[in-house]
Amino acid sequence: MNRYPPIAEHGMVGDLQTAALVSSGGTIDWWCTPRFDSPSIFGSLLDRERGGHCRLAAELPEDSGATVRQLYLSDTAVLVNRFLAPGGVGEVADFMAPIEGRVPSDRHRLIRVARVVRGSLAFDFSCRPRFDYARAGHSLTRPDDHTAVFHGPGTDLHLQATDRVTLRTDGDDVTAHFTLAAGDVAALVLTGTASGAPAPDLPSLAGIADELEACRTFWHSWMRSSTYRGRWRDMVNRSAITLKLLTYAPTGAPIAAATMGLPEQIGGERNWDYRYTWVRDASLSVRALIDLGFEEEAHAFRRWLRDRIEAGATASGDPLQIMYRVDGDPYLHEETLDHLEGYQGSRPVRAGNAAADQLQLDIYGEAADALMVADDMGAIRGWKAISDVLDWLAGNWDRPDEGIWETRGGRQNFTYSRLMTWVALDAGVRLATAHSRPADLARWTAVRDTVFRQIVERGWNEERRAFVQHYDTHVLDASLLLMPRVGFISPRDPDWLSTLDAMDRELVSDSLVYRYDPAASPDGLRGSEGTFTLCSFLYVEALARSGRLHQARYAFDKMLTYANHVGLFAEEIGPSGEQLGNFPQAFTHLALIAAAMALDEQLDKAETRPTPGTGLRYSLGRD
């Protein structure tokens, strides 16, 4: 029997500084505090026996016909597990009150509220924290029957229960068993604090009800800023909330995913730590939020990004590192946690990320887009930050690098890296002209045009009739699906349509898209991987922009069937439709938003200018 829940069997709650995963069975099996990138307190997702967990669930006897359903309260980050049994119907609501503002907090509350709405149900509770990725022991103190404090290195975890729940000691852990009848409510509150910090106030049901309502109000108020009125509002709204949950409020820095170590292939070695801020992912996340009308997040991230640029050159001498911690710390030492068995035995489990030292020149294009999209670079500070970077880029663009996929098989002249270099320089030229800002326009323009010509001449493979991954290969690469979006080529250009056809034949499997073929283009790692969900949504967007609306809409609708039960996506989709990799992933959700908006735009155009054959239909073939 598999001891691990599927990756997709989770929802996420968070307070904008940290996040927790809650399984559909009622187990918190991933939570780091006080930040996304802090060591875990609950980590049973990476080691079922040693990792630590907190479980609150109704007792459901086998063969009773009972079922469990997990959902979000609409347009919020309040997660509810519903337990439906012949003897009663109960719920457990999990939420964290958002912590706004630019001041990091060392106090984070995760609230679990159990109630019964029909009949009666018995509930089981266990709290078994394992501090520092389960490397450190802890001690337990019991001030009273409703309170427990777990003391770990540098961190205390306070557990407080309301009157209907009596906590029992189980070694250095805590359990409880209680029964609720229709109308009864009980709550358990987990509060992470710095060691020795004052204990939180004892919770009351009235106070917890107020906190729940304030949490709902926060998310409903935030969602009112969205300008999206398209066809897929539920999925787009859920993706927007997910991106917001993955953004560290004190600095405005989005992380790539809430987890570390979840495998791209069960039993494989592609198990990375994604709890950091990639300049690329963050820039594109912010762009997606801007497109939905969320300007505040854009301003916060641009401030964080300018601070990174103004901090000076990295150890390598480059203006930017590809990723940072959420507070801007550039040191992400990678270590292997050999004591953890990994999800379903997938070793090694890595904390930190050695790819931080890689050269990936494409980040300057995404960064320029994030800094310039609101056209606010007329500000002196903002313009100086970007112009200094573009001056550097004009002298360093023609270097082999590791590329967008962070390959560990050696540097190449990646076409996508050159493409985003062109994006950065083109944006700089246009903005400097529009605002009459000082710039070495002659040099920027000359380099931009040289990059363009090089991509056309060397990134194009005449034999394949397609743009390819790098200059010395015939391998295709799904990152190039962005070529039309960034304005490098018309989506109806014959060379682009030929490239899209080649990808369709080689990288696409029933709407699911592989990044590239690692067998044909070795990336320095053993094993294989699933289809990359980001690329699948980029494919939808590219189809839509190219006028292949039947194919685009059908592919998009099929992609939505791979979302989990609460609308979340991991990094990849495996051979049987299972979600793989870190979860939930910002890259995937930002691409979903972009695909939905592009498809809406093209469908609206088609509907206002009807022509024969444009009606949407199920098709056994291509457009």
Q: CATH topology of the largest domain, what is it called?
A: Glycosyltransferase
Q: Based on helices, strands and strand pairing, what is the structural class?
A: alpha+beta
Number of helices: 13
Q: What is the beta-strand fraction?
A: 15-25%
Shape: globular
The main pleated sheet reads as: 15 strands, antiparallel
Write down the overall mean pLDDT.
Answer: 93
Low-confidence stretches: 612-623
How many domains is the backbone divided into? 2
Please count the beta strands (DSSP E, at least 2 residues each): 28
- At CATH level 2, the architecture of the largest domain is Alpha/alpha barrel
Oligomer: single chain
Radius of gyration based on Cα positions: 25 Å
Q: Classify the helix fraction into a percent range.
A: 25-40%
Just give the CATH class of the largest domain: Mainly Alpha
End-to-end separation in angstroms reads: 45 Å
Task: Write up this protein.
The chain has two domains: 10-223, Beta-galactosidase, Chain A, domain 5 (Distorted Sandwich); 233-608, Glycosyltransferase, CATH 1.50.10. Helix content is 31%, strand content 22%. It contains 13 helices and 28 strands. Strand 16 and strand 17 (253-254) form a beta hairpin. The longest helix is centred in the last third of the chain and has 23 residues, at 586-608. The radius of gyration is 25 Å and the shape is globular.
Which features characterize this protein?
623 residues; alpha+beta; Beta-galactosidase, Chain A, domain 5; Glycosyltransferase; 15-stranded antiparallel beta sheet; disordered C terminus
